[in-house]
Amino acid sequence: MAGNLTQSPQSVSLPRRRKGPDLWVRAIQWVAGVAWSLFIAFLLFLGLAKPEGQTFFDKYYNIQRSGRWNTNLLDLCFYLLVGTFLICLAGLIINSRRCRRKTDRYNRSLVVIGLLSLLGIIGFLVLG
């Protein structure tokens, strides 16, 4: 009986009231999914925008290929990166409002894709 009276407040476990992911946690997961989808679309359009390489048959038949990037698709790629970064930023703001307990963590996926898109935006501005 004396052992129960000497317990410190830190050792008392409180009942868990969270029963699973709530609306905000699910929203953060959806935001991360949308951000990754936009980033994958960026990679696909970047692959379509690059100039075609010269093949053996092009050399053999003396066919000249344009060595220019498709600027319309590059503009689209830049806008996709900006959209991805803004969505990640919004998701991280929601995530920061949600992290109140020790066990709450930031969504690593949002951090990674946000940094990748920021580096891409900087690369476009420096090279472009």
Secondary-structure topology with pairs:
Elements: H1 2-5, H2 23-49, H3 56-60, H4 71-98, H5 108-127
Helix pairs in contact: 2-4, 2-5, 4-5
Q: Mean pLDDT across all residues, rounded? A: 85
Please tell me the total number of domains. 1
Instruction: State the shape.
Output: elongated
Number of helices: 5
Low-confidence stretches: none
SS-derived structural category: mainly alpha
Could you state the oligomeric state of the chains shown?
single chain
Largest sheet, in brief, is:
none
- Strand percent estimate: under 5%
What is the H-and-E element order?
HHHHH
Taking the alpha carbons of the first and last residues, their distance comes to 75 Å
Share of helical residues: 55-70%
Tell me the total number of β-strands. 0
**Rg (CA only):** 25 Å
Architecture overview:
It is a single chain. With 128 residues, this protein is an all-alpha fold. The protein has one domain (31-127). It is built from 5 helices and no strands. The radius of gyration is 25 Å and the shape is elongated.
